Amino acid sequence: FPSHDSNLIVNAFVAWGYWVNSKSHWIYTSYSQPLAETSSRFIQDTINSDWYLSICGTELGRIRKADEFDTSGADGIGVFKASGVGGSITGYGAGLKEVASGCVILDDPANPNEALSRAETDKLLFWLENTLTNRLNSDKSFILIVQQRLNTDDLSGHVLATYPDECYHIKFPAVLQDENGEEYCAIEATRSLKSLQIYRDWE
Questions:
Q1: Please, which residues bridge with residue 29 across strands?
Q2: Which residues are CB-contacts of 166 (< 8 A; sequence separation ≥ 6)?
Q3: Pairing mode, if any, of strands 59-64 and 68-73?
Q4: Distance CA 114, CA 120 (A)
Q5: Do 83 and 27 meet the contact criterion of CB atoms below 8 Å apart?
């Protein structure tokens, strides 16, 4: 998917999560604090919309900050924290001791302009291994990584290589084939078929 589409899907997933369980706990991260806060505001606007409130018992609570909000509903009080990679999330946790109760989300955790920087990749891996994994509240909590693959040793590559039996790997190919076997681009709004074929051949 183009990055803006995947971001909307992730935001909708969180809003749906609060619909299912108003007391769910989420930590949302992106490569920059402003991007994380943009998603936080989008989710808050969704929860506070008339159509959402008309069909869901969950509503926003008293905390309505750019990087943090809470929710209330029949299940209890929920919490949401947004942070840029490397930001402080001390005191926050994700998920509860039940299913459908939130998770840690890394949505576009790496800046595309720094995709080939070993230092930036190492910093991201360190934050994942030493901070985010410690923010899971129970063995039912999980980490969701949504990422455009930037190189073979990026965050997703590291996780797949290090934890092969603990991951669900979902791939959405950018190049597909029609009923006649002809290739076409699934994201033609942002990429041409020729550019993707050149990149694939280069790999």
A1: 83, 106
A2: none
A3: antiparallel
A4: 7
A5: yes
Cα four-point dihedral sign 98, 62, 91, 160: positive
Cβ atoms within 10 Å, residue 90: 7
pLDDT of residue 1: 37
Spatial CA neighbour of 103 closest among 169, 18, 46, 4: 18
CB atoms within 10 A of CB 95: 24
Could you tell me which of 78, 82, 51, 47 has the C-alpha nearest to residue 65? 82
In the sheet with 25-30, reading across from the earlier edge strand, the strands are: 59-64, 68-73, 76-84, 25-30, 104-107, 143-146
CA–CA dist 193, 196 (Å, integer): 5
So what's the pLDDT on residue 44? 97
Cα 178 vs. chain centroid, distance in angstroms?
A: 30
Tokens of 159: 């996780």
Helix axes 118-130, 155-162, angle to 10 degrees: 50
Identify the segments of the chain with pLDDT beneath 50. 1-3, 203
Residue with tokens 């929860």: 47
Q: Which pLDDT score is estimated for 199? A: 67
Residue with tokens 């509240």: 137
Are 156 and 119 in contact, with CB atoms under 8 Å apart? Answer: no
Number of alpha carbons in the 13 Å side-chain half-sphere of residue 50:
0
